[in-house]
Amino acid sequence: MAEVAEDELRVKESQESKTPPRVRGWHWWFLVVLNIFFLLAGQSVATLLGRFYYDQGGNSKWMATLVQTAAFPFLLIPLFLVNSRSSSSSGAITACSSRSPSISTLVFIYLFLGLLLAADNMMYSYGLLFLPVSTYSLVCSTQLVFNVIFSYFLNSQKFTPFILNSVVLLTFSTALLATNNDESSDPTGISTGKYVAGFICTLGASATYSLILSLMQLTFERVLKKETFSVVLEMQINTSVVATCTSIVGLFASGDWKILKGEMDGFTKGRLSYIMTLVWTAVSWQVCSVGVVGLIFVVSSLFSNVISTLAMPIVPIFAVIFFHDKMGAVKIMSLLLAIWGFTSYIYQHYLDDSKAKAAKADSNEVSDAAP
């Protein structure tokens, strides 16, 4: 009887250990802050360089699409360093190998997400070409609303008043910024058909981007099931390979490659500046993408989209510094709303962390009193 009781106690302890309260230590917060920095810095720099590319004479939609994923080889360096560091723990790798998904499953996932990513980048390029800047930014702000829907159905996202407050504030912040944009840089001579096509493309791109984020989170949780940074890099590299190959095929199939030499020669700042603009735009988008995927892995797809939306009011600040744009009261108000929304989301994670610590402390007291 004593042995049976001991066995039942072991089973009960093992069941409780499977669902411990999730306490987030300093390393979790460090990863969150690091990925937030990658996303904000990468998206801000890439957006400014993209504007510089168009302002100085760039016009290729497929090239603008290609540079968003073409710098993936740079990620092979940190992937090699991470894998070489973890190679010593062969026992842990062997233990996880039995749960690893099949090669065919991984190929299908990366191929599907890569094709979605290429289509999403292309739709954004068409939207920016055919829509006024204000309308484009306003439609892009809907990606957060789409992400709320996809996160609820695909990722079982729980919504609290603080999270909903964050979503609403960030959406209003972007919409407020969009209505104040300078229309002097809007495309002229755009027909009604192209305007409608640009609107549909931008709306479709916002929905597709949100779907990609939710599907990545679903892949991390249901398929990969590994909590390592190498998984984040592998996700970004593999999807970028597919998206880059698709963009290259589109570049040659559309005939856009024929105008690249003339575009380079006609670039206002010179050929070297043209090349460096494309190179650093590509690198910046990869840094941004690592932050996006990293936040999906560490937190959630909705949080990643929240930070991505936060970058929209931040970009005008750098535009004031580098392009001498005007910083009016509306832009300042938009930035304050964005910071308020971001703080609201972070405060929700602080509350969750406090509850988890309290629950763990209570469980430890119960286990200590059990003997």
3D structure, described in words:
It is a single chain. The protein is mainly α and 371 residues long. The chain contains 15 helices and no strands. It is globular and about 80 Å long. Mean pLDDT is 77; it is low at 1-6, 11-21 and 88-98.
Q: What is the topology?
A:
Elements (H helix, E strand, L loop, with lengths): L1 H17 L7 H30 L5 H6 L9 H11 L3 H8 L5 H28 L2 H8 L2 H12 L6 H19 L12 H33 L4 H25 L6 H6 L5 H28 L2 H23 L5 H41 L2
Helix pairs in contact: 2-13, 2-14, 4-11, 6-10, 6-11, 7-9, 7-10, 8-10, 8-14, 9-14, 9-15, 10-13, 10-14, 11-13, 13-14, 14-15
Features:
single chain; 371 residues; mainly alpha; globular; disordered N terminus
Gross morphology is globular
- In terms of DSSP E residues, the strand content is under 5%
Mean pLDDT: 77
As residue ranges, the low-confidence spans are: 1-6, 11-21, 88-98
User: What can be said about the biggest beta sheet?
Assistant: none
Tally the beta strands.
0
Number of helices: 15
Distance between the termini: 17 Å
Indicate the radius of gyration in whole angstroms: 23 Å
- The run of helices and strands is HHHHHHHHHHHHHHH
Proportion of helical residues: over 70%
Helix-strand category: mainly alpha
